[in-house]
Design goal:
The structure is a single chain. By secondary structure, the chain is α+β, with helices and mostly antiparallel strands. 37% of the residues lie in helices and 26% in strands. It has two domains: 34 residues, no CATH class; 50 residues, no CATH class. It is elongated, with a radius of gyration of 21 Å.
Length: 86
């Protein structure tokens, strides 16, 4: 989002600090004391049948797909998020 806004690294960090609810002074000491976690998300789509097959495979085949409610023509959107300390 910072790229889309044309923000510098400094402006981005200040905006994120403000977004967190902090209302004090944002200076070099504060920014240097911050420990952050960086998140990356990805969105993938697959057809319902593929989703049910993957769900069944992840469950080790213990349960059949009949417990999953949905339309056989639906396209499922799956978002995964991974976090790591930066």
């Amino acid at each position: 989002m910072a790229d889309e806004q044309g923000w510098s690294v400094q402006e981005t960090l200040e905006a994120l600090v403000r977004k967190s609810g902090y209302s004090g002074r944002v200076d070099a000491a504060l920014l240097g004391a911050i420990t952050l976690t960086r998140y990356q998300s990805s969105v993938k789509g697959l057809h319902w049948e593929q989703y049910v097959e993957e769900l069944h495979a992840r469950q080790g085949g213990a349960e059949g797909p009949e417990h999953v409610v949905g339309s056989s023509n639906a396209l499922v959107s799956v978002t995964t998020t991974r976090g790591r300390a930066a």
